[in-house]
Each structure stands twice: as C-alpha cells, then as structure tokens.
Amino acid sequence: MKLTITDWRAVAGWKWDVPDDDVCGICRAPFDACCPGCKIPGDDCPLIWGECSHVFHMHCLLKWLGSETSQQQCPMDRRPWVTAS
Ligand SMILES: [Zn+2]
Ligand SMILES: [Zn+2]
Ligand SMILES: [Zn+2]
C-alpha cells in the first residue's frame, strides 16, 4: 500500500497558541472579552503571554501572581512564570 503524501501541513493553518476554547485560564472569560475587573475589552485590558505559551488577561495574571498561593508560577502548568517578550 502506497500512501500519497498530501500537503496537509500547509493547510493546517496557524493560530494563537492559546488554551482550550480561547478562554482565560484564570477567570474563564473569553480572550475577546475583558477580565472581570474591566468593563471594556481592548487595549485597556491586554493579554499577556508566558514563555510556557499560556495566555491570560494581564490583570488576571497580575492578580494571580500577587496572591500567596501562586508562588510566581503559571496557574496552568505550575512552571515559574516568565513573561514572553
Ligand atoms: Zn482573565
Ligand atoms: Zn482587565
Ligand atoms: Zn503555563
């Protein structure tokens, strides 16, 4: 049996490497909405990417990192949080 290699990789597309359903892992609100502390989505409520590839509302992450339980770790994978530059 001979398989034909199709060009599937080229059509797979590209998208943000964001968590399931494109929701913030902390507040569970979609990334196209703002965090619970804000009223208007957009530049005033930016997203923040970590080097572990997880994405959160910046406000959610800052609030998380400010809590004692966070231990400065990513809330999704518990690796030390490093903001991607
Ligand atoms: Zn959030
Ligand atoms: Zn916000
Ligand atoms: Zn992470």
How many domains? The number is 1
- Give helix % range: 10-25%
Report the top-level CATH class. Alpha Beta
| Distinct small-molecule ligands in the complex | zinc ion
Describe the global form: extended
Alpha carbon gap, first and last residue: 48 Å
The largest sheet is: 2 strands, antiparallel
Q: In order across it, which strands form the biggest sheet?
A: 1-2
Poorly predicted residue ranges: none
Topology as H/E string? Answer: HEEH
Structural class: little secondary structure
CATH superfamily descriptor: Zinc/RING finger domain, C3HC4 (zinc finger)
CATH architecture: 2-Layer Sandwich
**What share of the residues does DSSP label as strand, in percent?**
5-15%
Average pLDDT, rounded to a whole number, is: 85
Helix segment tally: 2
Overall radius of gyration = 17 Å
Main location: nucleus
Organism: Coemansia spiralis
Protein name: Anaphase-promoting complex subunit 11
Keywords: Cell cycle, Cell division, Ligase, Metal-binding, Mitosis, Nucleus, Ubl conjugation pathway, Zinc, Zinc-finger
Provide an overview of this structure.
Belongs to the RING-box family. Its main location: nucleus. There is one protein chain. By secondary structure, the chain is low in regular secondary structure. The chain has a single domain, classed as Herpes Virus-1 (2-Layer Sandwich), CATH 3.30.40. Helices cover 14% and strands 7% of the residues. The chain contains two helices and two strands. The protein has helices at 8-11, 58-65, and strands at 47-49, 55-57. It has a two-stranded antiparallel sheet with strand order 1-2. A hairpin with a 5-residue loop joins β1 (47-49) and β2 (55-57). The termini are far apart. The model has no long low-confidence stretch (mean pLDDT 85). The site of one zinc ion has 7 residues, from loops.
